[in-house]
Amino acid sequence: MRFRYVDWLMLRDVKRRKLTAEYAQERMRYKALINNNILPEDLRESADMDMRKLPRDSLRWRIVDRCVITSRARGNVPRWRMSRFIFRHNADYNKLSGVTKAKW
């Protein structure tokens, strides 16, 4: 039986992306309460404590941009979410739409 993800790093990144999408609205509301200077200090502190109870992996900067094919974390082309090696290979064989070789 073949696993759906290339390695455990890709699986971990997928879980983080799901958590980030799930808790984004709630985190944004807590952040607005914390940064609002008009509200009383105890309300802002309680919002801060509630925000700290959210999962750590739901933070936006915990997401690592990985290649969707090889799970490589470095040297990715952001628009296609592929590593530069896979991107070059697919572009050479016309498997990516809208990609042309540079001409000057």
From TrEMBL:
Any Pfam family: Ribosomal_S14
GO process annotations (BP): translation
Swiss-Prot/TrEMBL keywords: Ribonucleoprotein, Ribosomal protein
Molecular function GO terms recorded: structural constituent of ribosome
InterPro entries given in the database record: Ribosomal_uS14 (IPR001209)
Cellular component, GO annotation: mitochondrial small ribosomal subunit
PANTHER family named in the record: 30S RIBOSOMAL PROTEIN S14, SMALL RIBOSOMAL SUBUNIT PROTEIN US14M
UniProt similarity note: Belongs to the universal ribosomal protein uS14 family.
Protein name: 28S ribosomal protein S14, mitochondrial
Origin organism lineage: Eukaryota, Metazoa, Spiralia, Lophotrochozoa, Annelida
